[in-house]
Amino acid sequence: MSKLAQLKNRTRSNYGFILEYRTRWSDNDMYGHMNNSIYNFMIDSVVNAYLIEFGGLSPPTSRQRGLVVHSHTDYFGSISYPAVAELGLRVNAVGKSSVRYEVGIFTRGVDEVKAVGEVVHVFVDSETGKPSAHGMDKSISDALRRILDTGISSKL
């Protein structure tokens, strides 16, 4: 099965963390569905919500921050206001200072995935902007490994 077909077959059970997002009227574009930039906003939101809640990240004070070095989204359907989106997060790879996330975007009550996004973060020192010699903070690394896809679906 192709990678695109695999992504299109994603279900909520493929993701270890789910966050709801209530769409707003202003999320819709002139065609009546959610604007592509809002999908990117939601992907960023679920990643950071998870890092803050489970990884101890405090954006204003943390000694590390994740910089996006790659992102893309595959679209399979659309969402529009007043839908409630469910954002599923999993980690597909963790390195010394980088992580590859996958986010599945669903409409509450609908089984089919609407979009799947991928983001790669490189964690850098907040002051120097360079990856730390010791890699990402242990609290972040540990949190990421909790939702690391190992071929077996797991929930927190």
Automatic annotation (TrEMBL):
Keywords: Hydrolase. The keyword Lipid metabolism does not apply. InterPro entries: 4-hydroxybenzoyl-CoA_TE, HotDog_dom_sf. Coiled coil: none annotated. GO terms for molecular function: fatty acyl-CoA hydrolase activity. Belongs to the 4-hydroxybenzoyl-CoA thioesterase family. This is HotDog domain-containing protein.
